[in-house]
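Side project, low priority. Logging it here so it doesn't get lost.
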Amino acid sequence: MGAAVFFGCAGIAFGPALALVLLTVAAEPLRVIVLVAGAFFWLVSLLLASLIWFVSVHLSDREDAKLQYGLLVFGAAVSVLLQEAFRFAYFKLLKKADEGLATISEDGRSPISLRQMAYVSGLSFGIISGVFSVINILADSIGPGIVGIHGDSPYYFITSAFLTMALVLLHTFWGVIFFDACEKRRYWCLGLVVASHLLTSGLTFLNPWYEASLVPIFIITLCTGLWAFFTAGGSFRNILKCLSCK
């Protein structure tokens, strides 16, 4: 049973991301490089956020439960802001790289567009974020033990997997929107990306009241996905062509 839960939840959490990597990234060396480098940037942001939270906890009263909970919320907010700051830094780096690739190419154009880099960088942020958020949960799902035997929710693993899947997709969408907003200097779009990231992170504190966290997060994912689709140049006509297999 433990193995079935492990592979099932892992498939839910990372199945869409794995499909995107295999179909759109793996065959292109430049995209693979952008994917790996993006994961590194996210890891650095996590390291800094962890240090800030670690120091704040050790400088506070560790016996005060309310204070520690407040510091946990503070740490999550700092982590979100640092992730977005490093997303901006990665945009600047990729922008410079794009200009350099265009300079050395024969036709004067970069072999990878900024929109493609935005998509791959967002996917890399999502994958590495999902791995760190769910890896311990997947390890516990193997057993021993049964979730819910002491009255807790038996849906802990499955909801964690769906939340991770939403987080991976959201980072991908945020990457597309964020890069486009930086390129076109649409600061209100940047603000909405950061605000939706903070909101999504804050909703997870409602767990184990999963109805109050999972449903709004998937609504945010759907709306953000549509926004990213149109930002990338999509249209209803393209959707109709896709559905009609034309």
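Brief comment: The chain has a mean pLDDT of 88.
Revisit when time allows.
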